[in-house]
Structures are given as structure tokens and as C-alpha cells.
Amino acid sequence: MRESQRANLLIVLSLAAIIGSMAVYASILLSWLRKGSGPTAPAPPAVSADLAAARKAFRARILDARGALELSEALYRAHRAVDSFYVEDWAQSFYGPSEFSKAHDEVVLRKEPLPISIEPGDPKASLKQVAQALAGSPEDRALLCLKAQLLEPSDPSDAIGLYARLVSGHPDTYEAGQALGELRRLAAVKDEGPSEAADDAREALQELMQARPEDAEIFAAAAMAAWQRGDLASAKAMVADALSKRPDQAGALMVDGALAWNQGDSDTALRRFSAAFERDPDDLYSAEKLAEVFDKQGVNREAALPYYIAIYRRQPDYSDGVPVEDTIRDILAARDVSGAGSSPEGLRRDLDSDDASARADACARAGRSGDSRWLDPLTARLDDDVDIVRRAARSALVSLARADPGALDERRKSLLSDPRPLVRAGALAVFAELNAPKTLPDVERALRDPDSAVRFFAHAVLQNRYQDGPDIARIRAEYLARETDPLVLARYGLAPRQPSAR
Question: Are 393 and 423 in contact (CB under 8 A)?
């Protein structure tokens, strides 16, 4: 009887532990779902203003990769992570690797373009030459970075002061992050003899923490360096002290999560990583761990989405065996974003959703409805931030026009002269698909559009919808002879030229 009671007690305790773990996972998942799905609370005015400015700038220079990356960043800051991913993913394919990488470095990573590149094997330029090329003060961010690069690896002590000045003088920049990583690496060297560089790096990190006690990345670098060199007690003490003073310090939460994870306490680790990421969306360590738990350990794959997007935003080439953008696309494709179904009210809400997947799905449903009442909402989606929505809207408009040809044709003139360049370009593609011969004069007019992106997209329509022949060749040749926009010409492999005097 006593053995049976003991067994029953063990079963009850085991069930309680399982239920407790599930409750932790569920609370984190529900917290994310409250933030990431369905109608969201209005963004603060400053964020809304930033997003409006980024949208306007993107449409003013669609062929410039920086505009797309700035829009993606503004969407991310406005808590529209899915839209942000789609814009960045489109930019990577639309602008090409070189142009995308340069814009990503400058906009997302905030990396300073350096006037002198130092490649392995090149003779080292003198600091005097570098200073002359920059014509800046000795504290110039790029000069500090170049000085650090020019120092011999055999003598890292000289670089520590430069690293510290980069971190303190230029926070939140790519160079500061690289410098902080170097300080952490040097400070993590184990005490196996005299090591002036390690001591200096630890001292530099301590001084940086005192100057900026709330900086999550500086704290994490110092605490993780202590742990890496084998001083686990110091790392734990640093975390406990930081959290006692400020329970929401993101760096301390992340390191505490890492300590809990290392000790097998996954419940505490999840809580800490989740709290750290919520306070610091650039915390890729927490993002990777949370993605691993929700996806790889089978808790809830969709809940891993915001963490994968956070990783992709900063590291588009990240892979854990599968490229991160492929993982994100798989999760997005598996989601049910059909909203309230095909009712007019539900469809209208989905067309205005904060989630691009829902808007694209709603466009497809509107196109299948055969109901011309959706023509105006769909033409509005031709100006969407996200390319998959713009394409879905074009496809839906073609479907509706084939069901009721007159309804869209009534809007032809207004659409092709719409003040929004993406609407003009999208409408041109729709009308060319419906009736290419009738639309050819419109294509010719669009090749003279004042907006260079409209001209570029009109040329794409000419290439994709019209067979080669003397007339098409003439139209194309005349257009290319007139074109002067360097971004357009670069896409055709043509050298920049001065505007015609005519």
C-alpha cells in the first residue's frame, strides 16, 4: 500500500513538473501572439512618423537599395516584423548581392564606409596617410577603426585603447560592436601567466561598464568574458548584482539565461532569454536560443518566427544547416492567415492587415470572388510596401477584369496617371497582361515617365509582354538612348551619361 502511495505521489509530481514547463512555454507563446498577430495597438507617434517618412523615401527612390532597407528597418521598429522580412528579402533579390550588401552594411549594421580598404597581403598604409585621406580629427570613427586594423596582431595591447574609444565614442555602430567583440575576446584569455593585454581589456570593460551601466552589450561582453576564462563565480556575481539594481537589464538577463541553459534549467533560461530579447531586439544570442527551443525542440514552430526574423535582419546569410530565409518562408507558408474567411468585413480587415501574408492572401481571395467591389481596395494594394502583396493585387485585378472587363477599364486613365509611381507601374503590368496590343501606347508613354522606377518597370513590361520585332526594338532603343538615371543605366550595364540638351 505504501509503495502504491509513493508511486502515485511520483506520478503527481511528474505531471505537475510537465504542466509547469508547458505553462512557461505557453506564457511566452501567448505573450508573442498578443504582440505579433491580429490587430495591434497603434504605434507611438514618433514610430508612425518614422515609418511614414521611410515609406515616402522608398517610393521617391525605389531603385536605390538604401530606401528599401530603411523601409525594412522602419517596419521592424514599428513591430511589423513579417513585413520587414518581406521587404528585406525582396531587396536582396531585386538589387543583387553587391548593392544589397552595401546598403545592409550602412543602414542595418550602421557600418562606416571606409575610404581606404586594407586587404590581407597588401602593404600596410601609414597612419599619416590614413589621417590625410580622412581629413578628420584623431577621434574620427573611421580613423579609429583603421588604426585598429593597422596594428600588428602580435601586439594587441596598443589596440585596446582604440577599441574602448570606439565603444564609448560611437555606440550603436558596427565598428563599436566589432571593437567590443575584440575586447571580450582579449579579456577572456585565461590567467596562465602574465598577460598585459588581457588585464588591459578587462580594465577597459570595467571602465566602460562604469561609464554606461545600462548598456546591455558592454555588460554581456564583460560577464561572458569572465565565464569564458573559467571564472564562473564572477560571472554569476556580476549578473546577480546587475539584476538586483535593475531587474530589466537586457545584458544581465541574457547572461543569466545562458547560465541557466548551461545548468539545464530550461524554464528559467526561456524566461530570461524572452525578457532579454523583448528589451533588446538586436540580442541575437537570445534570439537563436529561443528559435532553437520553439522550432528545433518542437514546442511551437510559428512562435520561433520573430526570432528567426530578428536573426535574418542582422545576418541575412545565417544558416543552421538551412538558410534562415528558407526557414522563415517555410513557417510563413504553413501559417493560416485567412482571417475571418471570405465575408466582406473579414476580407476588408485582411486587406488592411499589419501582416503582409494576410494582405496577399486577402488579395487572392478578392480576385477569386469575381466581385468588382474589390477593384478599388486592390488598386490601393498596388502601392503596398511589400512586393508579394503588390504581385497578389496585380494577379487579383487581372482575374476580376476578366470576369467584368468594363469595370477595370473605366479606371484605366486614372490608374495609369495615378500620382503614386508603384500604382502607375502596377496598373501598366495589369493592362499589358490583359491586352498587350492595346496597352503598347501606354507602355511607350510610361517609358517617358518622370519617375525613373516607372520607366524601369515599363521597360520590364516591354521585355516580358511583347515579342521582339522592329517596332519593339525601336521603342527600346529610343528609350535607352534617352535614359540618364545612373541607377537605371547600371542595371542595364550602361555607363552613366549626361542629360540631353534637347
Answer: no
Total residues belonging to the chain: 502
Amino acid 71: pLDDT: 98
Q: Which three cell numbers stand for residue 331?
A: 513557417
pTM over 0.85: no
State how far the Cα of 286 lies from the Cα of 288, in Å rounded to an integer: 5
Is 81 in contact with 306 (CB distance < 8 Å)? yes
DSSP state string for 389-453 = HHHHHHHHHHHHHHHSHHHHHTTHHHHHT-SSHHHHHHHHHHHHHH-HHHHHHHHHHHTT-SSHH
The stretches in the chain having pLDDT less than 70 are: 1-47, 114-140, 142-143, 146-155, 191-195, 299, 339-342, 498-502
Burial degree of 444 (CB within 10 A; 0-12, 13-18, 19+): middle
Contact 400, 370 (CB under 8 A): yes
Q: What is the pLDDT of residues 56-67, one digit of tens each?
A: 999 999 999 999
- C-alpha 50/C-alpha 374 separation (Å) is 30
